[in-house]
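Re: duplicated header lines in exported structure tokens

Our pipeline writes sequence and tokens for each protein into one text file. With two proteins the header for the second block appears twice in some exports. Here is an export where it did not happen, for reference. First protein block:
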Amino acid sequence: MFGTNCLKLESPALDSIAVSLGSGAKALASGLNVLLYCRDLLNQIAAAQAANQKELQNVMSQITDWAAKEQADLTSMQGSLAGIVAQQKALNDKITALQNSPGTLSASDQAALDGILAASDALVTQTAAVIAPTPVPAPAGP
């Protein structure tokens, strides 16, 4: 990822400075060149870090968007389940009222009771199917 072309500890310019200033200057010039290399390397690291930070923000934004959509779906499902529970209670109340009525049931009353029982059983079956856990897909990658 990081280039090695900026590591040039020897160069004609450094050699000419060293010749004119003496042997200590060559060591000084080489040290300066190492510092320049380190600066270049730190700039490359900073650029890579900035790119990584931008990518992280992008991923976090996708997660936030996905979570908001999931929350809306969960809220909708909660409303649907509350409606099913209310319907089950209403049907069970009707069944209880019919079963507690005095006397014997007429053929039409028995048919009505049988219909209500079948509808209640169907709702109970639907509710039981909804309770089964559903896997949540992970958000799509970039």
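Second protein block, exported in the same file:
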Amino acid sequence: MRVTVKLVSLALILLALAACASTVDLSDPRALMDGAASNGAFSNPLEPVSNMDVAYSLFGLDRARYGTSLFYMSTATSEAFVYMQASDSDAYNDAIVAIERRTESQKQLYASYAPEEVTKLENARILRDATNRIIVYVVADDYSKLTF
């Protein structure tokens, strides 16, 4: 009986904590990017990558497998904001692997001449939505200023 009461109490506490947790709406990529930029998360302005074929080639991905996309990158640092909407779970998983691979590659590249960028890359964030379709990748200067 006591075990049941404890389990029910624990379940209620976890449910209350889950209800209090804030969720981030990943469906509006421009709002996410604008919020991060206006809060000072990036040390340098990020420039939009307008050619999506080029943007996806940076990650070794096929543009045709993704829908709504937004790529912003710094021309002077490793900082970036990338939003991808995958067409299916395979494209989603491939994007996660490609992002992780690019992050590791960037760390090796920056290690020899800009080690402060390696720290940014080590703290890079990959946000995923519950549908396994949306991926947001952020490399920032000050992660405490991100609202997601």
